[in-house]
Amino acid sequence: MRKLRNVATTSPYFRRNESRNPNSVATDGNNGPRTTEAPSNKWDWDHYDVPALDLAQSLLGQVFVRILDNGNRVSGKIVETEAYLGHDDKASHSFHTKRTDRNAAMFMRPGTVYVYMTYGMYFCMNISSQGDGSAVLLRSLEPLEGVDDMKNHRGTKRKDAGAKLKVKDLCNGPAKLCQALKLDKLTADQKDLVTGNMFWIESGESVSKEDVVRAPRIGIGPSAEEWRDKPMRFYVRDNLYVSG
Hints:
- It contains 5 helices and 8 strands; from the N terminus they run H-H-E-E-E-E-E-H-H-H-E-E-E.
- By secondary structure, the chain is α+β, with helices and mostly antiparallel strands.
- Strands 1, 2, 3, 4, 5, 6, 7 and 8 form an 8-stranded antiparallel beta sheet that branches.
- A hairpin with a 6-residue loop joins strand 4 (122-128) and strand 5 (135-145).
- Helix 3 crosses helix 4.
- The longest helix is centred in the middle third of the chain and has 8 residues, at 147-154.
- It starts with 44 loop residues before the first helix and ends in an 8-residue tail after the last strand.
C-alpha cells in the first residue's frame, strides 16, 4: 500500500493527545463555520492513482471536505470504505468492464467522483482508482465540522428537522453521508477531487495497520455470492461512527 505523506496538520481535530467533543464544530472565531479555500494538504492526483484495495485503506483517517452553496464548510474523517475491483468483481457496477452512462465516472481518471442512486431516492459516493472500472465506496465519516448543517440536511423529512439526530448517526452509512453533505448525482458525479473547489480530501491522520479492520462488504447480493465474503471493506477499529 502506498505510504501516506507525513503532512503535519494544525487542525483542531487532529491535535495529539487531545480528545474532541463529537458535538463540537470548528469555527472562525465568530461562532460560524469556517470558510476557507482549499489548503496545502489537499490530496493531489497521485494519492488516487493506486489500486482500489490500497486506496480504500489509505483513505481511512483522511478528511472529506464539502463547501456548501452558502459558503459553509462541512467535513468528516473517513472511517469506513469498500473497494470494488471492476472487471472481475461481480459486485461492481463495472463488472466485465461494462461501461454505461450511469457508471462512466468509474472509468475516468483516478480521483473522479462516481455517484449513483439506490432505492430510487438515496445516493452513494465512490472515488475512482487505478484500473478500469475500479472505485472505492465511502461508507462512513466521523463528523468534524458543520454538524448543524449535517443535521438540517438529514432532517428534511423529520418533524424535528434533524435536531434530535445523534452525531454518530449523521454519516454512518453511504447514503447518510451523501445526504449529510448534500451530495447527489447532479452535484458531484464525474467531478474530480483535485481541481474543484466544492469538495476535496485533505490529509488527516495515518491509521496504523493494527487499527485497520478488514471485513466482507455489506449488502452484496446473491448474484455475486462468491464475492460476498471477500474482505474488501475497511474500517477504523473501535470507531463509533462506523456503519456496522
